[in-house]
Structures are given as structure tokens and as C-alpha cells.
Amino acid sequence: MLAELANQLKQSLGILHKQDIQAVSQFYRASPSKRQDTTDLGDRNLVESEGDDGAVRGTTQESAIAPFTAPFTTAAIASNPAPPTNLPNIQLGDDCAAIPDGDGYLLFAAEGMMPFLVETEPWFAGWCAVMVNVSDIYAMGGRPIAVVDTLWSQSLEQSQALFEGMRAAAATYGIPIVGGHTNCHSDYTALSVAILGRATQLISSFTAQEGDRLLVAIDLRGRSHPSYPFWNAATDADPVRLRQDLELLPTLAERGLCDTGKDVSMGGIVGTLLMLLETSGCGAVLNLDAMPRPADVPFEKWLVSFPSYGFLLSVRPEHVAAVQQAFGDRHITCQDIGEICTTPHLILQMQTESTLFWDLSQNPLTGFAPSPAPSPL
Known about the structure:
Elements: H1 2-10, H2 13-20, H3 22-29, E1 49-50, E2 56-57, H4 66-69, H5 74-79, E3 97-101, E4 104-112, H6 115-120, H7 122-139, E5 143-152, H8 156-173, E6 177-183, E7 190-199, E8 213-218, E9 223-224, E10 230-232, H9 239-246, H10 248-254, E11 261-263, H11 268-280, E12 283-287, H12 299-303, E13 306-307, E14 310-315, H13 320-328, E15 333-341, E16 345-350, E17 353-359
Parallel strand pairs: 5-6, 10-13, 12-16
Antiparallel strand pairs: 1-2, 3-4, 4-7, 5-7, 8-14, 8-15, 9-10, 11-14, 12-15, 16-17
């Protein structure tokens, strides 16, 4: 039974999508001479138009990261195709890019919506576009600052539900939509959103340690989407309570109780854990029997579900009780579901069965594993 379940998980859409990231990781790890020419990037207008929600779309403002973005202008790339050497060390593979900034970090992330969701449920797609970005910021111990969106549609009328969903989510999470790009004369409909946040203490996916306990924190006060593997504990939640629940993540980071984790994404709990193990260069034993789930959701569906509030944390044993109490005090389920080990294998356990689900030393997932240490001369 467990082997059959493991094979189903390997073919789930969320895990297959994570493997798509390998193309990106291979590009960034390649030497500059092996990359495709990037001089034909084209110029982009810095000011596009005013959107119907009143936001000026496409505008740019100077910020703390301006010195880092300057080397990527078209003219600079054309004259010097080699990558700049004065950039901060930003690890690729986390939920956000963490850019050192003074006594903390700027957090930068983006998400694109699945085309079928944009077409069939535009309001919900607009909501999710903001929600998943907000979750990425909190997952890294940060707090969101603002979002921008890029939207293509065949008419302004087709865009309305997308706008309304984004606006509703922005109001719920207390984050402004400050710009973006809108095209209502496209041959297709598409939506993506980018977000900026800030953290003083990071929660990263690169810092799991042998002996850490794996905790999953999920808000089970919701319902399953009728058509998609999505657990919705957000759209009907009290906005103040929802924001306070999310505030737990940066608070735990700032108290020194947790420095490692990810939000549970399209890969479900198993796929999310696999990404964390890859970037930390370790393995884990995952106890599926300990997995918290709603009583009315089949186990197979739950393992590939994307919860609106779900975080996988790798916690030092001495901090487990305090972390669980922090979530428990807010009526959020926080369960110990496994342990980190050194061998880069993900082992699944259920009842009396055990199976090797993934060997990261032989089969990368995203390709964002730590670079091997150089051999001594």
C-alpha cells in the first residue's frame, strides 16, 4: 500500500512542477560562457498606464536594492555579459530571495497562477495570487510590504474578477497593491504577482540540522475546494485573526525558536519537505500516520493538497514544545511528523511499512542543492 502511494505522489502535478525548476537551477549554475546570450532582452517602459483599481502600473521607485539591480540593465549586459561580482550572496531555492539590507533582509518573491484556475475561477485566482505571495514572506520570517501584479486578458471585463479577487485578498492581509502591468488586449488570460517584504531574522530552507524535529502547522478551520486539491482556511476567516496567525512566524524567528522551514506549497507536505531537504543537504524520516488532516478529506488527496495556511518547520528538539504551544494558543494544529537525518534520503513510514521515497544524491528535485565543498589541493 505504501509503495503504491509513494508512486502516486511522485506523479503528482505539484512534484512534477518542482522538477521543472531544474532548468532554472542548471542555468544559474552554468558558467557564463555556456549560457544563452542575454543581450536581446529588449527595453521595457518604466511607466505603463493607470489600472482600473487606481494603481499606477509599471512605475518604479528607487530603493535599497537599486545598486544591485543596476548591473542588470540591457546596456550593462550588452557591454559586459559576465555576471556582476559585487552582489550580495543570495541563496537560490528559498521561498523568497533574501537580500541583505542593513540589519535585516529584503524579501522578494513572485508567483504565477495556473492557467486553468485563471480561466475557470478568476476571482479565486486573484485572491490566491496575493495569498501565496504573502505566505512566502511569512514563511521566511518576514512581514509583507507591498505587491505588484502583471495581468493579461482579452478585455477589461474579463479582468474584473481577477482585480476583485486580488483587491479582496490585499484588504484581508493588509497589504497594498502598488503597481504592475495590465494588458486587456491579449490573446490569452494570465496573472502573476510579485511581493516585497522584510525580515530581521530569517526562516530559511538551507539550515535544517540532524536531529531536528519536523513540525507541520496547519489551520484546519477551513474546507476543501470542490474541484482542486486546495484547503481553504482563508477566504472566510476573520482578517484580524488571520494576520495575527501569520505573525507567529516572524515572532518565532525573532525569539530564536525556529530558523528553518517552508510554507506548504503545490507539492503538498511531502513535496515541500523534499525541497527543504534538498537545499539543506540532508534527509528525513516522515511519519505519515502522524500527519494532521481534516476528517472529511481522503488521505491521498490531503498529501497533495495546498493549504492556505500551512508551514513545515525544522525545529531543534529543545524548542519543539514552545513552538507547538505558540501555534496551539491560536488554535492552529502543530504536529511532530518526523526527524531530520544526515543521509539525503526521504523515508516514508506508515503503520508497519517503510519505503525510500526519494534519494536526493541520485535524483535531484529542483537542483538547488548546496554546492559541494571544493576538494583540498
